Amino acid sequence: MAALIAGITGVSDSLLAGAAVVGLVAFTCSAMLTAVYVVTLAAWLAAVLARPETGFQPLGAFVIALLSLVSLSIGLAIRRQFERAQSLALQLEVSEREVAEQLKHERDLIADELHDIVAHEITIVALHAAVLDRTEDMQTRSQSQTAIREAAVQALTDIRRVLGMVRGEENLSPERVSSPDGITGTIAAVTKELGQAGIAVTADVPSDLRLPSASLVALTRVIRESATNVLKHATGARTVSIVLRVERGWVHLTFADDSPPARTAGLPASGYGIMRLRERFRLFGGTFESERKSQGWVVSASLPLSG
User: Fold this and answer.
1) CATH assignment of 179-307, among 3.50.50.60, 3.30.565.10, 2.60.40.1930, 3.40.710.10
2) Which of 37, 89, 100, 147 lies at 20 to 30 Å from 52 by C-alpha?
């Protein structure tokens, strides 16, 4: 509109202002609008130069063109720096978010490890310490002392491993298997621990079982957490059954006890272990349930072997 008015009235001085504004247009507007403005300014300059009565000299047209070019270059340079700053700010935000997520992930892994130590080995120590207070039978006391000593040593070993994780000396990969012997070693350890508490364990596991490492970690955690809960909350249980089946691309685990209702060992419960297991199986696309049935507590967990 300014170019149209100036062309009608014959005012050419406003070309200087138009040339100076090129940089502002380049910084604030899109490339297409900037191009339209530059073309309009050039047509305006040519129209003024073509009218002899304006007295406009070619040198003045050169100065205005040079001023327009310099203004355009400055505007584009500022725009590039501004866009670069925005891009760097976005990258920094994304990087900070990734670091925060990684820290949260590592804190969750360390919390899982600490929960396993506190809820498992310390539970065994607490239960057998209570046995020592209630019995004078030397054989029973000897078994409880052995169980306390082994659980304490294992707890110290696990705590050192967690400290190594915190210091970065050990890998925090979620595929890290908590038991070097996998399912077989975990069931053997659980059988020994529950056996020391007078609970018989029967296990039905395929001999040729092959599982992905992530599935193996999840299932061993279910077995350990379930065994801990039997010791803490299923006082009166005499038998535990562990059944593992692989059917149609899924692995199914059932951990059941025969505990009577409303009887516990009186140890505090946070519900953290069950919550984390349910979350882990949900992320893997599986299912996890823990409920009391007529025959006792039953834990059921299923995972797809692929996907």
Assistant:
1) 3.30.565.10
2) 37
